[in-house]
Amino acid sequence: MSEPVSEPAVEAEKLDAADALRGARDAFVLDDVVYLDGNSLGALPAVVPGRIEDVVRRQWGELRIRSWEESGWWTAPERIGDRIAPLVGAAAGQIVVGDSTSVNVFKALVAAVRMAGDGRDEILVDATTFPTDGYIAGSAARMTGCALRPVAPAEVPAALGGRTAAVLLNHVDYRTGRLYDLPALTAAVHEAGAYAVWDLCHSAGALPVGLDAHGVDLAVGCTYKYLNGGPGSPAYLYVRRELQDRFDSPLPGWNSHAEPFGMRTGYEPASGAPRGRVGTPDILSLLALEAALEVWDGVSVDAVRAKSLALTDFFLKCVAAYVPEGRVECLTPRAHEERGSQIALRCDDADDVMKRLIERGVVGDFRAPDVLRFGFTPLYVGFADVERAACVLAETLT
Ligand SMILES: *Cc1c(COP(=O)(O)O)cnc(C)c1O
Asked: Is the pTM above the cut of 0.90?
């Protein structure tokens, strides 16, 4: 006698058959593990190894110094920025790729305070932020003579005032997966005459951001999560076009000079996106990222968002069907407009539970003290994966 097939398993099959993004999975190197950690390190796009081989052996090995021109190395930070731009709703010419997110938070925040000018001496920071943003904001505040005020994102509108210089916010909370209202919060910050700096690490590549449409001033994000750029791949910095001439970088390296090869003593900033550069670009990582971004050719971010919500809805449904009542508590909002592309479940012994899940081929991650985090990357996660993850979770918990 064959095993009875559960209702969720039947539904998973139907959902997979109707999935418009189903073919995108073939662009990745995956095995039969259910990989739900793409919000920490995206999977490897199949095109990357061959490209890196060419970059190393031919561009570096044979062309050597000529590659700065002939292989387009010198212009890579802005070229790749323009490749990311449509994914975050930005027109070309406003994004530069390089450095880590932490470093770009520093550049953006100090530049925002400098733009805000005299009399504005307070920085608001998301009190629940990914820690690095908070640490950097603390240092930026000390350097610029500002007070740093941690506030819950919902309290930001009430905390804004005539002294507010800049507000640093996370678009999606890395722990709970809560999505914040970027248009409304940005508008509130502007109403107060301050500047909004958004960290897009957990939203870019998972949902529409609309940087230009919502008048965001500055934004940063990493490329190794939903953008699959590889471990430690360089981050990006967005400076709204109208602000580019006023962007006064606290790290004015020679790469951001108007004439880098003029080798002059005096600093004169480049115009446009290159002003956000610092030193020599990390070409190997940059070009791995550039290859990785090819998986987005012909993919609409709206379709990605629709599938992301369907995946997380379905995961919650499977968890409700399989996991004993009360064993886990969902920390991620049920409302679509408040949900990113992950589900966070609070659970006793979460650390140990995640270890056992990973042993059984379901890879998510653990965030202290008691959170199981499952990231859903619509380009390569399917509905049968989701059903299997919930099923293994239930078995692990009972
Ligand atoms: C992942 C993440 C970072 C990572 O910063 P790095 O400098 O790349 O290590 C920063 N902020 C947020 C919100 C993140 O989710």
From this structure: yes
